[in-house]
Write a structure and sequence with these properties.
247 residues, 4-stranded antiparallel β-sheet, alpha/beta, 9 helices, 36% helix, globular
Length: 247
């Protein structure tokens, strides 16, 4: 589904590459986790694959579509759940979703019916006419998720989709993502919740300083590190215990 070849990104005035000559293939139907410390390059990689920023070098395809010559068509195949809330606070949940659906040329009764169904599934039906600014963090995360899947994307990018939410919201979000995956959506997921990633992802890649330092199923990575009992143990063994604060 995704083929990445020698993909690199160096921001203007930066001293080092955020992503450096990265190669990766992600199969159709996977739940693939991109894991790494702060500043490792995860969000930069997702931003390039989502066509939000242009690579410095390298190439990638999604569902056979090259990002250079098929950008508009490629964007129709993907959905993005950003790390920050991407909603209009003065609009209601329903109004937000109507707006985002219209960006994919969705309209009329089919769009309204789908929005109502999605709000019901994610426990938001009774809040559909409330303004987003009144919502809790977990509620906003769920609306953001709905906005990203209204056009039935083949690939869904999730950048920290459960950060800052309560356990109940997290469980509802993860369950819905698993349902979407069973229906055929390939999921690319970043998170700092290593226990969540261990149980959720079919495969993961651990990224540090813009390169992949390990990849495989969570089980195989744990088995290949005798000192590790969990994916978090593997992560710390490969990336170290040093703080990764950056500004």
């Amino acid at each position: 589904m995704i083929k990445i070849k020698n993909l690199s990104k160096k921001y203007k005035d930066a001293e080092i590459f955020s992503v450096s000559a990265l190669n990766l293939e992600i199969e159709e139907g996977e739940i693939f986790g991109l894991l790494g410390p702060n500043g490792a390059g995860k969000t930069t990689l997702i931003s390039m694959l989502s066509s939000l920023i242009r690579p410095t070098a390298g190439n990638f395809t999604i569902d056979g579509l090259d990002f250079k010559s098929n950008k508009r068509q490629l964007q129709q195949h993907i959905g993005i759940v950003p790390q920050e809330y991407a909603l209009y606070p003065e609009l209601t949940a329903f109004e937000n979703l109507i707006y985002f659906g219209s960006m994919y040329n969705l309209k009329g009764a089919p769009l309204k019916t789908d929005i109502k169904n999605q709000l019901e599934i994610l426990g938001l039906a009774k809040f559909s006419n409330k303004k987003i600014k009144t919502f809790s963090g977990g509620m906003k995360r769920r609306v953001n998720l709905i906005a990203s899947i209204l056009h039935k994307p083949k690939v869904l990018f999730l950048d920290e989709p459960t950060v800052g939410v309560d356990v109940q919201s997290k469980n509802v979000i993860i369950a819905h993502l698993q349902k979407l995956n069973k229906q055929g959506t390939t999921i690319i997921y970043t998170s700092h919740h290593l226990n969540e990633a261990e149980n959720f992802c079919t495969r993961v890649a651990i990224i540090d300083k813009g390169i992949i330092v390990a990849k495989g199923t969570p089980k195989s990575l744990i088995e290949n590190h005798p000192e590790a009992n969990t994916l978090e143990d593997v992560f710390l063994a490969l990336t170290g215990n040093a703080l990764r604060d950056y500004a």
